[in-house]
Amino acid sequence: MTTVQAQHAVSPSPEDHRQPRHSLGPEFQSARFPEELLHFVTRGTELVARAAERPSPPLPTAISPLDQSLAGGLPRGGLIEVTGRNTSGRFSLVLSTLAATTTAGDVAALIDLGDSLDPGNASELGVDLDRLLWLRPKHLKPALIATEIALQTGFPLVILDLGQPPVRGGRGPAAAWLRLTRAAVAFQSVVCVSSPYRVSGPAAATVFETERAESSWLGGNRAPCLLEAIRFHWKLQKIRHNSHSQRVSFALSSPEAFLGETADTGFVAVDPCVDRKKTVETELDRYRATQSV
Amino acid sequence: MPSHPPTRICCLYVPLFVLAARLRCEPELLEEAVAIFQGSGSAARLIAATRRARRGALRPGMTLSQARALLPELHVRARDPECEKTAQEALLEVAESFSPRVEDAREGVVYLDIQGLERHYADEDFEPAERAALSGFAPSGFALAELALGRELMADADRKAGLPAWAGIASSKLGARIAAERLPSPTIIPVDQETDFLAPLPLARLSPEAHVYETLCRWGIRSIGSFAALPANEVAGRLGKTGQQLHQRARGIDPQPIVPYQPCETFSEGMDLDWPLVSLEPFLFVARAALGRLCSRLDSRGLACVQLELSLRLEPKGFCDRSILLPAPSRDVKTLLTLIRLDLEREPPGAPVVGFTFQAHPDRPRTAQLTIFGPAALSPDKMATSLARLFALLGPEGIGRCKPIDSHVPGRFEILQFEPPTPPIVRPEIPRSKGLLAVRSLRPPIPLVVRRAAGKFLAVQSRAESTSSLRLGGRIRVASGPWSVEENWWSEREAINRDYWDVELENGGIYRIFLDQLTGDWFADGIYD
Question: DSSP letters of B263-304?
Answer without folding.
Answer: --SSEEEEEEEEEEE-SHHHHHHHHHHHHHHHHHHHHHTT-E
